[in-house]
Design brief:
The structure is a single chain. The protein is of the alpha/beta class and about 220 residues long. The protein has six helices and eight strands, in the order ββαββαβαβαββαα. A four-stranded mixed β-sheet has the order 2-1-4-3. The N and C termini lie far apart (about 80 Å).
Length: about 220
Amino acid sequence: MWCYRGGSISAEPRINDRIRVPEVRLVGPSGEQVGIVPLAKALELAQEYDLDLVEVAANARPPVCKLMDYGKFKYESAMKAREARKNQAHTVIKEMKLRPKIDPHDYDTKKGHVVRFLKQGDKVKITIMFRGREQSRPELGYRLLQRLAEDVQDLGFVESNPKQDGRNMIMVLGPHKKKTEAMAEAREAQAARKAERQGQPADAEAEDSVEEPVVEASAEEPAEA
């Protein structure tokens, strides 16, 4: 009698002589239904086709087994999982802090950061920080947020309208472009730059390119005296 004595349970399916049932429901190499056959017959067919007998539905009665090249199947599954992880995109919310009386140069600098974040497919939380008597002039912050939204409307949209949060006013901008699209475009652009330097076609470099790291730029204006 089998008993579990601790440790991890393997997620690997049973294959070939590890299968311990009198008969199986057999599926052929191309997905065709062979029917219910004795285990010995299924193993014989696996040897004849130079394939493995793999248990794909252990809880069925009888268990379902398929003839396949199990090594090739594992390799292809690992490659698919790797590609899925490579293209996986996590939602990131960047933050940019401004003062209601920000000077034009600082505004242009911070708008540039917002533009970069949106191009990368990230959301941006814009925070207007009020200090002292500025708290009695919320319209200053509202107008500044409206101005910023209009300046970047080609890249993003207002996902969360301006709202007061204590001494701050907050607005969230969402990108028009999905994160996965932005990542793909960044890889293509990097491959093109690399190919241009090396004098090679960009397509040959696209698959091996790695996305450049993103450094969040969030700076708080110094408080007024």
